[in-house]
Amino acid sequence: MVRLTKQIVHTVPAPDEGLLEKARTGAPSRSVHAEFFEHIEAFHVIERRPPSRPAAWPGSFRIAALNAKRLKNRAAVRSLLDRAGLHAALLSEADAGMARSGNVHTIGELAAPSGEGFLFGVEFMELDLGDAREMRDHHGQRNACGFHGNGIVAALELADPVLIRLEEGGLWFPGRNGAQRRIGGRMALAARMEAAPQPFWLVSVHLESKTDPADRQAQMQTLLRALDRLAPPRDACVIGGDFNTKALPRDETERQEPLFDDLRAAGFSWRHSNVAGPTQRTDPAGKPKPPFGKLDWIVVRGLEARNPQVIPVLDQNGDPASDHDLLMADLSF
């Protein structure tokens, strides 16, 4: 059964600190994780802020997908979105109330200067300060609320938002190498473009990195089953985000990742909305190292795609703001 969340809030409620302390000291089992997941309200709501002045339908719609790597460098990402002339950005790995990113709502700060609206959904509740390096760098600090998730930023009105849980197995609950203990699981955010001349859905997705192609396929199948209920095949739809496809950026990628078979069967295509080159890059911490892979994708149904580009995510000094570059394409009916 696919879990769909439609409850909208103005601000995701902060977790109970006593509950989080129990989670930190509890047995890292699947059943214990499930109990904490159910009792944390943040996993069962969507934060929505409308644009200050909703834009009209532009005719040709420019969209991007970006894994923002905590969204620490919001100035660099904001500048990039403005220069690209985007109408919507599908974002993953955005913090809210994490010490490592300034204990702010990163997507809220990203959207504020432009007056854009946004959706935000919590993927993980971080029980630590982050990975091992982040725990060293921020030793002695505290997270304001410890949220980490996905979002959609758009100048146009987003209607009928839905959070789609792709898995709830608690893979990250025990942590990795003594760090990064988390409650939660991978998810997608979907919404309908209110101003579009016909039904048109945006979907921001982030598939699991610490797994295999079969598990990523299962997560994509869960997403596609949800879309069958939300956006029938006659509706236009774009899915974008970090698919975590691990093969190098060659033609073999699609054959090694069976999730593409499911996307094709569901009517999605990607030939004209992607480029063959990699979307990874080395981040300020020096990871990952080359060779880089193509992890990020934009796939479309019921739309014409053109002008795909991968744009370096660099600040004004030429330093990387993420370990992914931005993938962009133009769409029209």
From TrEMBL:
Residues 74-324 form the Endonuclease/exonuclease/phosphatase domain. GO terms for molecular function: endonuclease activity. It comes from the Bacteria. The keyword Nucleus does not apply. Transmembrane segments: none annotated. InterPro entries: Endo/exonu/phosph_ase_sf, Endo/exonuclease/phosphatase. Keywords: Endonuclease, Hydrolase, Nuclease. This is Endonuclease. The lineage of its organism: Bacteria, Pseudomonadati, Pseudomonadota, Alphaproteobacteria, Hyphomicrobiales.
